[in-house]
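ok so for the tutorial part 2 we go from a plain amino acid sequence to predicted structure tokens. step 1 is just haveing the sequence, like this:
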Amino acid sequence: MTILYQSQNIIIREFVPEDKQLFVLLFEDEEVTRYIPQRSTAQYLELFDSTIADYSKGPLGRWGIFDIHTLDFMGMYLTRHFEYVPDQVEIGYVLAKKYWGKGIASEASSALIDYCFTHTDTNQVVAVTDLDNIGSQKVLEKAGLRRLNNLKRDEQELAYFMIERT
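step 2 — the prediction. this is what the tokens look like for a chain of 166 residues:
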């Protein structure tokens, strides 16, 4: 199991097969999934299996965020090539509600941005959020991303953010 980041608060690491139920349960909270595409439990199970398989393909993928002290599962982070500009790397996250507003997403976003610049040759890390997801927009700005013009994904207008390699 590879650890991507560790601080005095969190650890970001590869998922292991034993994490499958935690991963699926994260997406059962309607408030947590309000701003992301809806999937069935079977689709989340498939997504978890492909997540594990993708670790052998390179530096991008999905990772779990865990509390360093209790080892509680806090959420999931994603890095992938951005579908609109393949030279850009997109980050995204889903955080359990009990961890909202505690600085976890900002810390993890900053860590994943550093990871992307260190482990890929991209010069731009991007993120998109629902226009109404003000909380995530603030997280991205705290992590150093700046808001650009909105873009459309699957007919939905989204807020678009970017940070460039310095």
